[in-house]
Amino acid sequence: MKIKSGGFTLVELLVVIAIVAILAGLLLPGLTVAVAKAKAMHCSNNLRQMNTAVVIYATEYGEYPLFGRGPTAAKPNGSTWHEDILPDISWGQKDTIFRCPTFRGTTSSGGANAVYIFDSLGSYGYNRGSSFRGTSLNVYRFGLSETDQTGLEVRTVREFEVRNPAEMIALGDSFARSYFSAGGLPLREGGATLSRKLAPMYLVGEYGTDLTGSAKRHRGRVNVAFADGHLESETVQRLFFDADVAALRRWHVDNEAHQELFTSW
Question: What's 36's DSSP letter?
């Protein structure tokens, strides 16, 4: 009397493998989307807390942090906007809050000398407004931090100067490229200058910057925080390319489009 084996036949095993492969093919896209959403939420939470710190700073001092400060006796390498808001960041998050989990670029704290403030490199940028047409230097107006023709700050922006806080971009995912990097290396993605119109020193490509990396970070969208404290997730097209009045005015403290700055590049 023969006892029938309880093992799988080769055909049965192949059928099981095929079913597992089909299920994996159905589940993996959903898992990929879920992971991307989780990373985007992590990033937006970072940005929300940073923006809250900026709002607290503006309320406490009556003015917004400068993009960067020149060297002083106390800080011979100068200081940056993100250093100014550190006291209002939760202690346990000071080391991680400035890093988006999807950012793969170089991180650098920037610095300053007597005539120039260097861009930091990292996940997030600070709205400096728009550069003046025809200037070859780092000259910005109408943002939360203004510069003169040396690239150094000339004055702080007072809290009351922001005409419509709910329509004024304060912070967002970094997208600019910067000349500044350790060792004098070429342009690096992740410059801390957030702007609708970059100065020529940053220009890469026809539009004026290479948005490829940032567009991929959150599936074609960019997280932005506003001066009233709220956050939005905007498309790259709407944030950086659309040139209608509503799109442009969100970059400027006076809530004006300043379309005269965009008539030529």
Answer: H
Q: Does residue 174 sit within a domain? A: yes
Q: Which domain holds residue 234?
A: 10-262
Q: What's at 112, amino acid-wise?
A: A
Kindly state the tokens that stand for 33: 């989307």
pLDDT in tens, 119-172: 777 888 899 888 875 555 567 889 998 876 555 666 789 999 999 999 999 999
Residue 5, in any domain of the structure: no
Q: Which residue has the tokens 């009556």?
A: 62
The answer to pTM > 0.85 is no
* Domain count along the chain: 1
CB distance 175 to 209 below 8 Å: yes
Taking a C-beta distance cutoff of 8 angstroms, is the pair 217, 122 a contact?
no
In tens, the pLDDT along 47-57 reads 998 999 999 99
Segments in 131-262 forming alpha helices (H): 212-217, 236, 245-249
Per the domain annotation, does 57 fall within a domain? yes
Query: Is position 38 within any domain?
Result: yes
